[in-house]
Amino acid sequence: MAPKVPRVSFSNGLSVPIIGLGTWLAAPGEVTTAVKEAISCGYRHIDCARLYGNEPEVGAGIKAKLQDGTIKREDLFVTTKLWLTDAKKEYVVPALKGQLKSLGLTYVDLYLVHWPVNLRHGDEYFPKKADGSTDFGTDYDLVGVWRGMEEAVNEGLAKSIGLSNYNKRQVETILKNAKVKPVTNQVECHPYLSQKKLINFCKSNGLTITAYSPLGSPSRPEQESTDPVLLQDPVVLELAKKYNKNAGQILIRYQIENCNIVIPKSVKPSRIKSNFDVFDFKFSSEDLKKLEDLNQNYRLIYFNIKDHPEYPFNEEY
């Protein structure tokens, strides 16, 4: 029997299962099976995005589990994200309607602004200028995009809305101007990048944290041979041995004990199951501190849009 998964409450009174299935970098053809497997073993939270190119596959997996009676739609929490080419007020609702069609759903539980930047509107994910540089299109308006997100809530297309990869200043800008408050900030978070200052700021202002790349994103496209490998860290391996768990389970449990929503990605049935098997142990305070002490403020996911004026990682947090 699947464990009862704790839920994290949002400021708007809704809540989300603390663990979800991440789908970034999942290869085409594998996602439908992964979603079905995850739902079968107890996951009730699926995270996807237009950029990942897998919304139709996610939708097919959900549809199969709805049809076989495993779940009802209201049992499932589905998150997707606004892509940067639609990051303008008038494009948000049409973009989400298109994504809902791909997913085969009438609403999502959570819609996020994927990054606090924009790219030229069009069908290309990463449009270029004639000289080969990234085409950011027209001036970016943080608040204007949020107005479009609020319209998505008002039209019943999204139950909650939130942010992803926003820094403190950008979150503050949204909070000062929001009519519908963001419920979460989805950011890279793991023991090498603990994000304590940003997390404390967000939580003190009513935003939850959703941790992406909690295992250190070993399959990320941009990496150096000198990058530390979190899953092979001696402290992580020592704790895995002590608690009779694998390294991934230690890193997922680290997020849960910090009350962060966590979305590990896998398409392997055995790994999907083991990533979910994290509710039968708890760290001692000493062991949790060992993981906290691994922090190096080491960011693994940079995203190559550093020339954009709103690129979020040029500030301390």
TrEMBL record:
<dbReference type="InterPro" id="IPR036812">
    <property type="entry name" value="NAD(P)_OxRdtase_dom_sf"/>
</dbReference>
<dbReference type="InterPro" id="IPR020471">
    <property type="entry name" value="AKR"/>
</dbReference>
<feature type="active site" description="Proton donor">
    <location>
        <position position="52"/>
    </location>
</feature>
<feature type="binding site">
    <location>
        <position position="114"/>
    </location>
    <ligand>
        <name>substrate</name>
    </ligand>
</feature>
<dbReference type="InterPro" id="IPR018170">
    <property type="entry name" value="Aldo/ket_reductase_CS"/>
</dbReference>
<dbReference type="InterPro" id="IPR023210">
    <property type="entry name" value="NADP_OxRdtase_dom"/>
</dbReference>
<feature type="domain" description="NADP-dependent oxidoreductase">
    <location>
        <begin position="19"/>
        <end position="295"/>
    </location>
</feature>
<dbReference type="Pfam" id="PF00248">
    <property type="entry name" value="Aldo_ket_red"/>
</dbReference>
<comment type="similarity">
    <text>Belongs to the aldo/keto reductase family.</text>
</comment>
<keyword id="KW-0560">Oxidoreductase</keyword>
<dbReference type="GO" id="GO:0016491">
    <property type="term" value="F:oxidoreductase activity"/>
</dbReference>
<protein>
    <submittedName>
        <fullName>1,5-anhydro-D-fructose reductase</fullName>
    </submittedName>
</protein>
<keyword id="KW-0521">NADP</keyword>
<feature type="site" description="Lowers pKa of active site Tyr">
    <location>
        <position position="81"/>
    </location>
</feature>
